[in-house]
Structure formats: structure tokens, C-alpha cells
Amino acid sequence: MLKIGLTGGIGSGKSEVSKRLSARGAMVIDADLIAREVVEPGTPGLARVTETFGDGVLRPDGSLDREKLGSIVFTDSERLAALNAIVHPLVGERVAELQRGAGDDTIMVYDVPLLVENNLAPMYDVVIVVDAPDELRIRRLAEHRGMAEADAQARIAAQASRDERLAAADIVIPNDGSLEELDARVAEVWDDLLRRAAVG
């Protein structure tokens, strides 16, 4: 099994690359997505969150109100630590479950937004960084997510710098051109990963 850490700053197009790798046969593990799954209505995770933070973090339909919970934890490091202590082990269990179900020849792609920030590169056989200039990322965040320029700049500034990310990369996928160019680069990278998996 080849373990790939896929990362890129906000607005770099990491999810576009993730989709393309998945379409080629990679098993993509998206920690953010799993973090949502483990607190869906009816799960032990959601029960523990409401036990810790109260029913005020629920929407009328019984699902988790992420914005409400976010406003509580992101201004209070102890509350954030309490939330992480609930969610992280559940995400870890689910990831381990997915890994057990994978074959030896599987190319596992872990979609890890904060790979560089949390010094996680050593956990993977190959680190892929999706790269785009900051100005382009700011423009994308404004166009695709309706984010104000100042907010986009603040989000980018809060993450690792472009140089720090590139320094951690085994493979770089530039994403500052057309989708056709991105497709072509992903195809090259996929061939490279297949070769590495065969050798491993």
C-alpha cells in the first residue's frame, strides 16, 4: 500500500486533484469529510458533542450546527481541545477501518489540509503539494466561495507559506493554468505513483 499525503493551501485546487486521483483508482481519505461523518445524527460522536457542549449546538432537525459550535471553540482553546478529544479518535478509528479494507496494491491518498502546519509529512510515503500563486488563490476564494479579499488573505496568512509547503513536497502539481493542463499533470503523477506502488 502506497500512502500519499495530499496537501495545498486554501484555494489551491486540492479538491480538484483529489477528485481526479479518485477517478483514476486511488482510495481517497478526506479527514474533514470523515470528521463530519462521525458527528452525524444518531452517532455516538454527536451524543458526546452534545453532552460536552449542550443541546444549543444542534439545529432544529437534530444535526450539528457547525457554525454555532465553531463560534464556541475557535475563541477558546480549552473548548477546542475538548472537541478535538472527541472527534480525532473517532476519525482515527474510521481511517484505520478504511485502511484494513484496502488491498496491498492500493494507492491511499490522504487529503490533509494542514499536513505541513502539523509536521505530518513523515507519515506518508509521498507528499504531493497542489500549488498556485497567492493572488490566484485569493481570486478563486472570492469567485467560488464569495469570500472577501481581506478574509481570503487572512486565511492564507494563517496557513503555512507557499515556500514551506513546497519544501515538504516530493511531487508538486502546479494549478495555475487550465483544467486540461491540470488533467495532464495529474495523469503524469498517477503514472509515477503506479510505478512507485509496483516497486514498493
From TrEMBL:
Give residues annotated as binding ATP.
11-16
Alphabetized PROSITE patterns for the sequence: DPCK
Membrane spanning residue stretches:
none
Query: Which reaction does this enzyme catalyse, per its entry?
Result: 3'-dephospho-CoA + ATP = ADP + CoA + H(+)
- Name of this protein: Dephospho-CoA kinase
Q: Which one Pfam family would you cite for this protein?
A: CoaE
Its pathway, per UniProt, is: Cofactor biosynthesis; coenzyme A biosynthesis; CoA from (R)-pantothenate: step 5/5
Family to which the UniProt record says this protein belongs: Belongs to the CoaE family.
Tell me which EC number(s) this protein carries. 2.7.1.24
Q: Where is the signal peptide?
A: none
